[in-house]
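Field notebook, page 233. I keep forgetting to write these up properly, so this time I am using the form the group agreed on. The chain and the ligand, heme C, are recorded exactly as supplied. Prediction of the bound pose follows.
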Amino acid sequence: MKNIKGNKIIAGIVILFFVIACRHEILQNNTEINPGTPVPTSNCSPDTVYFANQIMPIISSNCTMSGCHDNITHADGVNLTSYTRIMRYVVAGNANESKLFKVIIKSDGDRMPPPPMPPLSSEQKALIQKWISQGAKNNTCIGSCDTTVFTYSGSVRPLIETKCIGCHNPANPGGNIDLSTYNAVKIVALNGKLYGSVAQLPGYSPMPKNSIKLIDCEIRQIQKWIAAGSQNN
Ligand code: HEC
């Protein structure tokens, strides 16, 4: 009797191993980045949470850095670099049943992003919860970006905080680039890498990595700020 039970357990472990191994392979062979993100057509409604504008930036800069849920590492088999992939951990309409939401609200060592990284802010958690509750759509809208505003504090800094800082801070300087201070941002502004990477010009690494390209208005703001002398204004 004991032996039969033991065999069943071993068979279970073997099956589980194959399921995990197969899943890994599927994820590894699949390298597309955010296909089918709709072109923004509508103005942003204050009551709606938009995937391309609000959710992807949070996930790419807090979860897809090197060594985590990117195309290369996909830690625990989880790759969060596109809408389709993120949806594997989302039950549209039900945040409490969605793995993506459950792991970010945990308070123990299992929470994501894991310690020593800081947890998501309560505002970011609430946005993810609301987006899932509203059906977790692959939606996007034309934001309130204004090309006549191109100061460091008014446009460049807030954009870096939302879309770049998770991968470019002193603890995690992607490509050895830290964008947490004005002086550091000024270096990449002056050497052409800031504009080259966000405009995704040939010869530069396209930024934001593992995410959706900045909208034209944001790229123009950065370009104008640099052209006006990259000041700390
Ligand atoms: C998911 C992590 C991640 C995000 C988000 C991200 N970066 Fe990067 N960035 C990297 C890594 C890693 C590199 C090193 C090159 C590479 O691996 O592509 C890099 C390289 C760069 C470079 C050097 C490019 C070159 O061609 O030498 C610049 C400039 C840069 N990032 C700016 C930004 C800006 C601005 C944003 C936000 C709009 C951003 N990054 C968002 C990870 C990221």
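OBSERVATIONS:
- The pocket of heme C is lined by residues 60-61, 64-66, 163-164, 166-168, 174-175, 177, 188, 193-194, 197-198, 204-205, 207-211, 214 (CB under 6 Å).
- Confidence is low (pLDDT under 50) at residues 19-32.
FOLLOW-UP: compare against the apo run.
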